[in-house]
Structures
1.
Amino acid sequence: MFNIELLSTLFALDAQRYEAFGLGCVLAVLITLFHVTGLTEIVGWSERKFDRVRSSGAHPFTASLCFAATIFFMLFLHIVDSCIWALILYGLKLIPGIHDALYFAANTYTSLGYGDMILPNDWRELSPLMAISGLFTFACTTSQLFDVMGKHRSVVAALTRHSRKQQPVA
């Protein structure tokens, strides 16, 4: 049966914890929106590059370089996301050093765990929300990477067919 006492105990957080939870939710959404905006730009750039590579009749390896650059940009976007979290932790003085804040943010954002650091007790609700934002952004990147991989495969196949037609028959 539904236990009201248990439910009220679960939600009996002090104001500081509500603030941490609320801030964490807002930041998770904003960082996810930032990430999706960045992904949109990266994927658009990638598609334009793949189209130019295909139309130029370049060597198929050129498409692989474009694919590698796209992966690098996606990785860099995740690093920026972690840095945003780190700056927030450092700015709120939840973690005293910027290097420690970066370490904590990267560990939590990737859902690997805390390592050897934890947030102050009143702010610990922020940690799972950081991890959730990482899950959201990695899911977005993964879905876009599937599309980029398909485009890469298509361009390599077209360029390979093109280069075979260009070779003289012996």
2.
Amino acid sequence: MTRLLRLLTLMGLLGWLFGCDTNKEPYQRKEGVWHFEEQAMPGVAELTVLNRRFAKSATQAFFRATPITGAEPAAFEALDEHHARDRQQVWHADTYRDSQDYFTTKRIRIRRLDGADPASFMLLREDYARDAKHVWHDGTPFPVKDAASFEVLEHGFARDRQQGYYLRTAVPGSEGASFNVVDAQHARDATSVFHAHMDLSASPPRVATRRIAEVDLASFTALESSGYARDIHRIYWRGRPLRDADPASFALLPSGTPGADAADARRRYSRGEIVAP
């Protein structure tokens, strides 16, 4: 019971700090004045609530309590809690916090998506969106070969008709039409296998991709999203073949094994490097 009370207290504190009372309707009229949560919206006589983040009056559109400059209220519609459009424009809106007043102030960011075509604009999974010519993630555009065919896959991978992508970065040499996910770090197309990960050792961190050379497609298998993979001839660590590793006996070691994460009949390995027995 004590543990439950502590959890409820913590949830209440987080709700107070971050305003995450999901049961309360955020737009409300109090004593004749419209509010978003506790923020008054003076001068707004009538309000049409579109969802929990967007609303409009006869003369303005709003994200939370903030007017959206240049919006056309009559045609304005909410697509989800971050995207909205009218006949001419598309917007992405969210909140963020600054380190100087992180716990006390929630700031508003409203961005018009330059060049977005409202008629063809559509939401995809995992904060992606596209129109006939552009693709965005969380409101930020990134280059693709064919926006109209772009689709989101799993584990940060995506594709269009021409090539594959990992975390909004093109996978060099990939063929989009047959590009598919193997696991959280590997993808393949009709002729190749690729490894991709975020290289946190780089400054700044960057996406690293590698086409695995001379891989046997028919027997290729990724080993539990560990970074290791095998085919009938080789063992790979992050797309790099481990010289002399034995595919037949190679196996991952139980999590928490001291000093090693994999082994074959002759050696032990840690993150692709041979370690002492």
3.
Amino acid sequence: MNMWSHRYFNRIDLRFVLIIFCLMGISLLVLSSMTFDDDKFLTPVVKSQVQWFGIGWVVFFFCAGLDYRKLREWTWILYALMILLLIGLFFTSPIQNVHRWYRIPGLSLSLQPSEYAKLVVVLSLGWMIEKRAERAASLSTVFQLGLIVGIPFLLILKQPDLGTALVLYPITLVMCYFGNVHRLFFRILAYTGLVLLLFVTFFYSNMISHEKMRPYFTKVLKEYQYERLNPNTYHQKAAQTAIAIGGVWGSGWHKSEFSSHGWLPAAHTDSVFSAYAEEFGFFGVLIMLALFYALIHLSFKIASVAKDSYGRLLASGLAVYLAMHIMVNIAMMCGFLPISGVPLVLVTYGGSSILATMAALGVLSSIYSRRFMF
């Protein structure tokens, strides 16, 4: 079988491509407004984002033309490289007091390995579950899957990057479900996740007091780590304020009085959803959510039409990868989860997030375009 071929481009779902273009357009509109300077649409941040989008399309078509089944052969090479990069972060100088990025000398760029680690975990889980399909329900399989996810999870958590680490949890849960992994293990994962979700919901709705829980949590967490779980930080309140100001119709593009004037922290990165909501309002948010729904719907549809177990596992894992980024980022901005740096796919400014997302979408397109091959 050919490793790569452009012949499959004409089988790519054009709805997928259209949705990606629309989300990229939204990104550029928001970034231009949040970094507005001298009446120019193409601010330095917008120009940089356009460049990343361009590189992202190259990555997309490379992955779409690549036979996804060949990824099995690269899995452990990619996994070993990912672990080395995650460990290497702790030997570099911290950026913003955390070990998440590598600075690339001479290019004024940074690389965030954890963004790519999530994709590599999906590949590794898919490979292992398929390899051990006949023994999927055994405890030895559970142990091996636990190692595959556990090592990067702990390394990412140590950076610290709680949001990125927790994205691995639902990915593992869904792929174990589709892979018929040990049902007791699956139930433990599911119930643990449900309990944690309920606890966080009570915590952020002030049904459980942040201050009253402080003595218990600070026995295992440092003070500054516990403060990241504070539902009453300025960033949390500012994000919700920006959404509320937007109302039904929004203040209008380039007309925000809150987000674009520095009151909303990280308006073009972590808080891009709140910035968008202020300018485009409830109806603008509905349009964005409709695009995201279509993207996730098509991703899960690819999982349903894939013709082999490996393709189904990859597609389901990548669909959850995309869905969790969207759900977690929006939940953070609405005050339901701690703000932890999970990007809004294709909208948040940042090269690593864009390239990882476009690679995931490219692999999904590869699975879809080869659904009739065998």
